[in-house]
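Annotated sample (chain length 996).
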Amino acid sequence: MQMICFALGLLLSASVQAQTVTGVVTDAETGVTLPGVNIVIQGTTTGTATDGNGEFELNVGSLTETLIFSYIGYLSLEVPIEGRSELNVEMRTQALLGDEVVVVGYGTQRRRELTGSIGSVAAMDFNRGHIESPEQLMQGRIAGVNITSVSGQPGSPQSVIIRGPGTIRSGSGPLYVIDGVAIDNSADTTPGGNSFGPGSPSNTNPLAFLNPNDIESIDVLKDASATAIYGSRAANGVILITTKRGQRGVSQLNYSSSLTFSTIANKLDMLSPEEFVDFHQSVGQPEMDMGHRTNYFDEILRTALSNRHAISYSGGSESMDYTASLNYSNQEGLVITNNLENYGGRLRVNQRFLENRLTFGVNLMADRQRTDYVPVADNHSTNLGDMLTNSLTQNPTQPIYNPDGSFYEIRDDGMNPVQVPEIFTDFGEVTRIMGSLNVDFELMEGLMYRFNAAVDNSQGNRFSQVSPHNNQRIAAPQGAFHFGNRENSMFQTESTLNYITSLENHNIDLLAGFSYQQFVREGRSFAVRDFTTTEINAYHNPGIGSNVTTADLPSGFSAKNELQSFFGRTNYNYLQRYFFTATLRADGSSRFGDDHRYGFFPSFSAAWQITDESFMSGSTFSNLRLRAGWGQTGNQDIPDGITQQRINIATRAGYQLNPGSITPGITFVRTQNENIRWEVSTQSNIGLDFSFFNDALYGTMDVFRKVTSDILIETTTGVDPIAATSSFWSNYDMEVVNKGIELDLRYRQQFGTDVSFDIGGNISFLDNEIRNMPVDQIRTGSITGRGLSGETVQVFRNGLPFGSFWVFEFQGLDENGENIFRDVDGDGSITDADRVSPGSALPDFEYGISARLGYRNWDLGLNFNGVSGNMIYWNDHNALFNMPQLYAGNNIARVGFDPNEGSTNPATASSRFVYDGSYFRLNNATLSYAFNTINLPVNGLILSVTGRNLFTITDYPGFDPEVDRPRSVGGFRSMGIDSSRYPSARSVSFSINLTL
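Output written by the structure step:
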């Protein structure tokens, strides 16, 4: 707040005497004047544009400033004023699409040199507003990238799928590379908590340690020709995140702050207390009316207030550049007591020596995060339920408080949800430090050596406590405390040689490198119960616990794996018209046996710049480029040690040699298999880049086919007749085939001197199929609730896509109000053989639309996204919102109210609870105003207001159709199941950005 007051004080201080610069801008080749050229003072938002005659006039604070000239279809210019009051500027044409610099594996390339499929989003195009993790910056912006929030909880994980899922195991996602450091994003640093009954919420997103304000660009490598340079970890795509660095000759101090108000985006349509009472009176149950009219759900919700502050200082000279930043955020959740607080900082310095031939670079990031959880669980139980479930289903005629002000105790079924924060304390703390050292040395002209060393260390603690209580539905009435700790560490070192040379019309770029990474994961936990005092909390002093059960005894784990890699790449082009790329990476992983430790991942791709051919002279195309590629990538994201035999020597396990007693000894848990191989993804891609009207209208289209083979599966039945075990891992010859089409189109134009317009859209179509599976089916997708124990609703089966639901086909109710299911095989009874697939959780297509309109100092940005053709299984409707639950005295959603349904109708999983998950959403809208600071002692001042999740068009009756609750069974992936989901927020943010 002090910074804001200081900034406003500066705005009201004495102005600086302005001076005027005039001039004319022309085309360097034709001499034609250029109207509508944008001109700004470097480091500011102050500027103007040329008029219809190409002339301009601009007030500047000093004749030592530098002006930036930019115009569609022309190369941007930096022109120092150098004391002149008149400037005549010539601009040269440049294909902007071709000149754009794109980050690729171990380097950068101009867009026109790419042969692979890469989607990019720069900082100016990021989604705005209250962004909780880097993935949300690009949601809906890149074709073929599906991003889904696991829940609406602050900092919740994001599910990211690039060009369809490849492996059937849960937990596999894209590889993230931050400033050249490949991180292990699957290693969650936050330990799981103990719910003591109501359930434990999902952990926060491990990528949330990155401050969105520090990110310069995000590049997504989609096809194998682009990802093969990362070999064994690239089967699910690669996301390259580049942070900001200082600019030479420009020093600036930037401060940004935002204040966000969030409310629930959508409420469930529940029966009102009056409707609840009317129903029970109509069926002869007047005793259900306890005389109160309570909305428990509203009582546990709040208008959440969040604030974010970031300050950065950056600059540079001919010999160095630097940037330093600090950030703080405090985000309240929609549910009372839920909170996420974050502190972070970053320092990046590059120092050049020996006439810029030698460069030392240091990049350091540190972050501290605390999350206060509430029991909104991944898995609810109908008999008890979590805080959210109870607030929805409790009898709405019960009170919250007793006449004496104490909490009303709900005894029959569940608990008083408003009382939960008084009983439970659950919070996690995570500290993460990531740093890297880079050395670049030009050994000779065209030959560059690069050395990189990096560490990524994180430590997380989870504290879960239930205070002494008298609630019969919650465990540990005398109190209990659970502590969990996780530590993850990574060390990386890489060396590369890069040689670039040109021989007449032949251009060659050679890269060779070596990489080594070591990952260590450790964890430990313990618990105590039966507190001896209530004067202090057990998370301050666990010694107040007087009892330890067998389940509370200390436990822990430790795992280490290593990855050693050799890689090389050749980029060749002839006449800047014909391009060819070949890549090979050899990865050796300690996770595999000696005979299959190394995997080899090649790729080949080519491109043809068609518009440079003589027969394209006079064409309407500004750019026409054909790309084609083929390659293989791998997946080594498997559990540690699965090639080896696993035994259990715990004293609490053994054999029942004598009836009623256990004789301690060794038990076999997993059979060894040294023949486990890599999962391999083979992908082919054909792409077309095009533009018209001097690059004002441009786009790209890709057609791809990705086949994942050698699928690794854990068998959970005995495989050794002598020493039978419950776990055996092996590769199978089944395939997962993803085929699709991606289209990205954008149009931008400047209208006169005041108006600019930019609109774009992308759409991707996906067809996914499982083939050659060696078993009839693999069931997954567990659901919970009364009568649903052990039930699954999804299947992996030949000919079906991922996420296929596998349930009975509901055909209505009979005269007794009970379910009627279709007898598929006609045998007269309903068995598992009668299950059908009513659809898949994978969308047929997904799309995004963005628009930006600028008028003078005003800027309006809109971003829409949506999916179509996917289905959602609503576990809550199945388990909670049905007529038997209403007869039993629980409230239900209106969607489950059917007077024709009997009071004892079984809650059997069926197509009755499968819904269309298609939606269209206004993801965010931002209106900003950039003040003219020419007469102010600041370089830039921007005020903005942003709305996120403003509206969603969908037929889905749940909280949010963007849902993917974890429901795997046996480690097999599930998708599109909605159960006790933390509701999504609709937010409005007010922001200020000040540059000095």
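Annotation: The first helix runs from residue 2 to 11.
Annotation: Residues 1-17 have pLDDT under 50 and may be disordered.
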